[in-house]
Structure formats: structure tokens, C-alpha cells
User: Which sequence fits this backbone?
């Protein structure tokens, strides 16, 4: 495969879309580095009465990875928040197809109770009662994704940082995380970093920032350091 020109596959998080602000800014930045950028489109996003399942996101990502492999192109996987969940699982399944990872506010090491209480405390009772509820969206015009206790617990149970003591990912990894992230505590990400078997991992901590990070100078430097390791 051609390691000089990887395709950047972007996976957004819950409540976002391929047309959300960060996806568009990321596309512009990646293309400024002379790389092809593709946002992975989740097939069930926005479908009425469809309950979110993170396995669907994984399958959609694997389709894009397989398309790149057919073209003899390696993939650089770029994820934000819950989108990192599928990226990490895909990297375990297709290690030879992936040359590097860049993870923004990765949703690792989460548990059901803390996530619900931070993100949507008003739905706590309904979720425990087995009801389907809309996950908060990044914008008013974004169709809500329906979730329930079962699908959120499946996300927690299949998180590789929750179920593995050592994570056999060996490609270069770059992580950016806010010091004040209330949704995914920084301690979760530090534990995840220590579990990675890769010898080329950099965690950039953005002091004073929460879960939603901008594509700014710190990110650009981190991304360029990843390109330099390929």
C-alpha cells in the first residue's frame, strides 16, 4: 500500500453530523496538508425510530477502510468523542490498513451512570425505566439520535479501554484532551494511553478546556507530528 498518501477518515461523535462545524473545519485543515479527507457517513443517523448502536458506526467505518484498501491506500483515522470508539475497534480488526490515529476528546473508560448524569440528567429516570430518549445534539437543526439504556451499556461494554488491560495498537497515536473535560475525565484518557502498546503516543492536554476542542494551533502541531511519524 502507498504509505505516502493516506486517506484521512473522520468519525464524528454523538449529536454531531458530517456537516457539523468541526467536521468542516477538519476537512479544510487536512486538505491544506495535501491529504484526502472523508467523513464517514453513518447509515442510520437521523432515521426516525432507529435506536443508536455503536456497532453500526463500526461497520460503516469498516466499509470505508475496505474501500481504501481496494485502492491500495492506507487510512489515517481521525475521531472525535464517541467516534473514537469505532476507530479503536476498527484498528484492532484492520491493523495492516491503518497507519495512524488522531483522537480528540476520546470517549474512553466511561460508565453508564456518570455519562447520563453529566450529559442528560433529565432523562435518568426514563433511561433506567427502559425508555427511548433523544441524545442531545450539537445544533437545533441536527436530527436527534434515539438512545436507551441497552445501547449505552453496549457502548460501555465494548469500549476497548474498559475491557483490555493492554491494547494491541502499534501505529502512531496522537490524542488531544481538555484538562477540564466533565464528560470524559482526563484520568480516563491517561489510563487509556498507558494501556496502548504503541511506542509512539503523544497526549496533548489543553489546559482550561472542556470536551469540545477547537481545531487550533495545538491540534495543527499534533497532526503534523503524526504525519512526521508515518
Assistant:
Amino acid at each position: 500500500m502507498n504509505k505516502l498518501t493516506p486517506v484521512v477518515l473522520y468519525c464524528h461523535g454523538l449529536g454531531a453530523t458530517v456537516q457539523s462545524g468541526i467536521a468542516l473545519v477538519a476537512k479544510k485543515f487536512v486538505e491544506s496538508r495535501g491529504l484526502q479527507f472523508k467523513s464517514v457517513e453513518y447509515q442510520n443517523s437521523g432515521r426516525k425510530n432507529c435506536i443508536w448502536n455503536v456497532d453500526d458506526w463500526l461497520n460503516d467505518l469498516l466499509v470505508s477502510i475496505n474501500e481504501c484498501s481496494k485502492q491500495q491506500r492506507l487510512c489515517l483515522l481521525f475521531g472525535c468523542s464517541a467516534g473514537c470508539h469505532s476507530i479503536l475497534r476498527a484498528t484492532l480488526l484492520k491493523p495492516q490498513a491503518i497507519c495512524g490515529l488522531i483522537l480528540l476528546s476520546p470517549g474512553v473508560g466511561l460508565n453508564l451512570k456518570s455519562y447520563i448524569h453529566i450529559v442528560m440528567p433529565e432523562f435518568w429516570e426514563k433511561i433506567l425505566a427502559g425508555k427511548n430518549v433523544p441524545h442531545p445534539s450539537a445544533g437545533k437543526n441536527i436530527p436527534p439520535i434515539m438512545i436507551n439504556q441497552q445501547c449505552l451499556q453496549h457502548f460501555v461494554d465494548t469500549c476497548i479501554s474498559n475491557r483490555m488491560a493492554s491494547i494491541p495498537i502499534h501505529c502512531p497515536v496522537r490524542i488531544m484532551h481538555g484538562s477540564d473535560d466533565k464528560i470524559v475525565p482526563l484520568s480516563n484518557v491517561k489510563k487509556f494511553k498507558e494501556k496502548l502498546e504503541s511506542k509512539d503516543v503523544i497526549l496533548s492536554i489543553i489546559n482550561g478546556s472542556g470536551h469540545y476542542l477547537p481545531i487550533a494551533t495545538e491540534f495543527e502541531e499534533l497532526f503534523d507530528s503524526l504525519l512526521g511519524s508515518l
